[in-house]
Each structure stands twice: as structure tokens, then as C-alpha cells.
Fold this sequence. Notes:
Elements: H1 6-13, E1 34-37, E2 40-43, H2 53-59, E3 65-68, E4 74-80, E5 83-88, H3 92-106, H4 113-128, E6 131-132
Parallel strand pairs: 3-6
Antiparallel strand pairs: 1-2, 3-4, 4-5
Amino acid sequence: MSITPIENVKAHTARPPVQPIAKIGAIPRAAPKHVQTEGKTMSRVTTNQGSSQATRLVDLSKDFELFHTPEGRPYGTFAVDGHHETWSVRSTHFKLLLVNRYYESWKCVPKGQELQDPLETISAKAQFEGKELPVFTRVAES
């Protein structure tokens, strides 16, 4: 058995350079799907007022105080029944709160990636636009 020098192996496994795409805008895109809501046909991507569901979801968090911990975890504080609650943006509770607010406002439900993108945007806003604050867990006696 003979051993091939590494220089020869690299020469045989090198990939050709990638050719650039002439126009990104030329890539065909699928037509948006539509859903029927209260007698109105609405696009899953955009609504009849031109705002995307993702943009509306982010807008529903405008009254939240968004911030991040020293470790970089995104949080939001919001009013609930006369008191304030703080939840991780990545928590199930935060996600359900946003879905509930969306449903109350628009009477339709965001699906899959249409919910994930706004949560990532809210996380980024907490990280880059919000203050850095520590978070503590309060434990009450029963």
C-alpha cells in the first residue's frame, strides 16, 4: 500500500469556483396562498391593508418593554390585569400571548414560519435596542 502525499489529495478534491447569479430578482417566487376570513379573502403573506402578518405581530409587541440579560437572553415585560409580567421572548407563554393578541385583533391565526420570524425580530430588538438588565426568579411561600 502506498501513501499519497497530502498536496496531491488537495489538488484532486478542490472545487471549481461558484458562478454568481446574474439577477436575484429573476428568481421565480410562488404566488401567495389565500385564506377566507369573515367574508374577506386575505393573503397569508400580506393582508388587505398591505402589512404582513409578521409585521403586525411585531407591532403587537410595541407596548412591551424589551430588554436582554447580561448573558444575551431576550425578555419582554408587559402589563397583565393590573400588574407587570416578565417573560423570555423564547418562552411558550410569550409566544401564546402574541398569538392571542393577534387573534383578538385580526380574527385569524398566524402559522408556522409566519410566527417564528416575528419572534426572531422581537428577540433582535430586545438584544440590540433594549437595555441590559438582570432577571431574577421570585419564589412565593405557599
